[in-house]
Amino acid sequence: MSKLDGIALEIQWSSLIATVTEQARALQRIAFSPIVREAGDLATALFDRQGRMVAQAVTGTPGHINSLAAAGQHFVHEFPPDTLHPGDVLITNDPWLSAGHFFDITVMTPVFRLERCIGFFGSTIHHTDIGGYGVGAGARDVHEEGLWIPLAKLYEKGVPNALLHSIIRRNVRTPEHVSGDLAAQVAAGRVGAERLNALCDRTGMEDIQLLAEAILNRSEQATRESIRKLKPGTYHGESTFDVPGGARITLKTAVTVDARAGELVIDFAGSSPEAPIGINVVLNYTAAYANFAVRACLDPDLPNNFGSLLPVKVVAPEGSIVNCRYPAPVNARHVVGMYVPMPVLKALHQVMPDRVLAEGSGAVWTIQIQGRAEDGTPFTSSMFNYSGGMGARRDKPGLDATCYPTGVAAVPVEVLEAAMPIVFTRKELRPGSGGAGRQRGGDGQFIGFRMRTKESWLLNVVASRTELGPEGLEGGEGGKPGRFLVNGEPVNKSQKMAMAAADEVMMETPGGGGYGPPT
């Protein structure tokens, strides 16, 4: 086949989306960890032989998806397609090459047709544990944060890399969960490979290169055309928020619209420097969320792939908190990374005011618990997340207990209570926490819990916006900041805490900012 007409391209594009979405659903069905199975903290995508992301699933988080897109080319550079064999599976969790911290492991499965690699199916998921410090911001450098897996082969010609599997199992607290989730990633990649070969059989394609080129070229041109419609110039945005321990972080952006070239440049010069705690962000993750903010405003219906990402350039000074240098600690990088869209949206408000939203609560509040149950059985929780309120939109209120920009959901309390010795004492919306306005900001929520244990236990809570609430937009009022309490007393720490058996925890997540003056 030498040429694709519009109808054939649309049919095959729909088939690719169905394929990567089936890969994602398979991964969720067979994953061991609630954070993947229930919350959907994952990304899956198809790549061509050059490591360019062609299609992504309809589910997944922006941070994972767009970081996975960046990882594809690193894999291809280290493992050229013609050096691979059927049954090979590749892996890494290098923060600077993939999704920004050790918990997110990326697995790439080469797809073979007639003994030739024609592409890859990739997935990134948040794993239950990766050893080291655990979820939290208390580590002093990246080496305290867990197991670092370089670009490597997890399977070679269908045979497990026994030494690598053993190293992973011996370095994590929940080896069965981690091994099970890795197996789920491998199985989901094989599902994708089978479906792609079936598509090639139906259409008579020897590979996907012609199809990939058509999709990527059209995606790039459509994105450039959308940018050309914007008013050229440089627009500035700034957002300040507090992080665990009380430090205040400022993110600054200068968004330059080059309408002639159809390009956007997002420059984070002037943002805060690297932090001494693990809230630093690698450039991959910064670019992932900056791109998401642009695409959400520019044209949400465009495909998200290598082609559509190409016209948006994201730069940040090396050594800044959004482009940290090795060996900066990064485990809680979402605390800053999920605020990245806020200053970008403020800049875009000057170009397309009807498409942006007010500041929201920012990062999800993440929790990890370690200890022993009443019968002495050790437990380590899967990370679970709780959102505050979303910022209001120009014509609609902000959503309650919904975190923009991540798409990750909260694991249901019933699932958590069945998986570990935890009892939730309160779970309800926090009325009035959203900022007033013509459109009101979304409300945060109350989450209270205690542990069913006779011994002390360890708690990592990564809370933000406990001092500075989200700002409103165009005269809207700000949302209320959050509160984290232990036995009724406010706590603001970045380190892991030792808790007594009877301690009770209460989290009050922030509300979103309002839009427009209240009437």
TrEMBL record:
Q: Which Pfam families match?
A: Hydantoinase_B
User: Which residue range or ranges hold the Hydantoinase B/oxoprolinase domain?
Assistant: 5-518
What InterPro entries does the record tag this protein with? Hydantoinase_B (IPR003692), Oxoprolinase-like (IPR045079)
In its UniProt entry, what is this protein called? Hydantoinase B/oxoprolinase family protein
